[in-house]
Amino acid sequence: MRVLIISNPKSGTSETMLGEVIGTIESLYEEIIIKKTQEIGDALRFAETSESFDHLIVIGGDGTLNEVVNGLMTLQREERPTVGIIPAGTCNDFARALELPIQPTQAAQIVRSSHEQYVDVIQVNEMYALNFIGVGLIADTSRQIDPDEKESLGTIGYFLATIRQFREADPFNITLRRGSEVIYDGDVSFLYVGNGSYLGTVPTKLETQSFSDGLLEVVHSSARGFPMIRQLLAQQLGLNQKTPEWNHFQAPHIELELNAPQIIDVDGEHFEADKLSIRIRERVLTFLTP
Predict the structure, then answer these.
(1) I want to staple 173 with a disulfide (CB 3.0 to 4.6 A). Which of 70, 168, 220, 259 is the partner?
(2) 3-class SS letters over 170-239
């Protein structure tokens, strides 16, 4: 077998870590090719030309993994290599969803087990995501994280940014459709469309959450300030958070119209739009899992 390793040194991947990972898996492969990213877009370009490999191993964080997914989705389904993840970022949310060890050499042992699992991918307009699409509070929080806080505090930096955004979040108007049916038309503080089960290392705790059921998890709320905090705490504590302000449903495909362009967060990557077509691409990637 042949393996392509895409490593992002900026995510904290040291030469020692890379050597330990290779030492753990090298007996599995006849050929190991290592490509290190130097700038944004490198991982995507490497993945676009990975069709001759049996496995593609990503050593990096959520951003590196997002690039790899977008690169793989340019290939025909039968050409896409099986993906392994060695978490090396701040949050590693999709690695957590797959229940992978966060410690690199332990994650490399999962590659040795060769257990494979099909995974859904979210398509939003012409982009792809494994974990989530966020609009409003979610997108604003990730954009407002201080880079120094992220580097020095890790996941606590996300918490601090969230608290700041709770004070500043403004509602915005959306029209949400499922096929020809209007599901919601009104103001919201945030919209979350999920496939994974973690957001900023925090479990979403949606009872129906699955990354291989062919369905999107859609959550939106019009609450602000303390009512919003109360809803989110109730969710984390496993309490009933259903109120007229809180809505959760599943769908394979939704259409979203915004009254004005908003920043859209796609697995940590950002762009501005006022219309989104979001659908699930069912079981289109294969991952190495426990």
Answers:
(1) 259
(2) CCEEEEEEECCEEEEEEEECEEEEECCCEECCEECCCCCCCCCCCCEEEEEECCCHHHHHHHHHHHHCCC
Could you give the CA distance from residue 251 to residue 47 in angstroms, rounded to a whole number?
Answer: 29
DSSP 1-19: -EEEEEE-GGGT--HHHHH
| DSSP string for 145-171 | --HHHHHHHTHHHHHHHHHHHHHH---
Burial 225-244 (b: 16+ CB within 10 A, else e): eeebeebbeebeeeeebeee
Residues annotated as catalytic are 269
Span 126-144, pLDDT tens digits: 999 999 999 987 776 655 5
The string of DSSP codes covering 115-145 is -EEEEEEEEETTEEESSEEEEEHHHHHHHT-
Pull the structure tokens for residue 79.
């050409």
First to last CA, the chain: 20
CB contact at 8 A, 6 and 59: yes
Cβ–Cβ contacts within 10 Å for residue 118, how many?
A: 12
**How far is Cα 216 from Cα 192, in angstroms, rounded to an integer?**
10
Q: Write out pLDDT tens, residues 182-240.
A: 999 999 988 999 999 888 777 888 889 899 999 999 999 877 654 555 556 555 545 45
Closest CA to 127 of 10, 236, 290, 271: 271
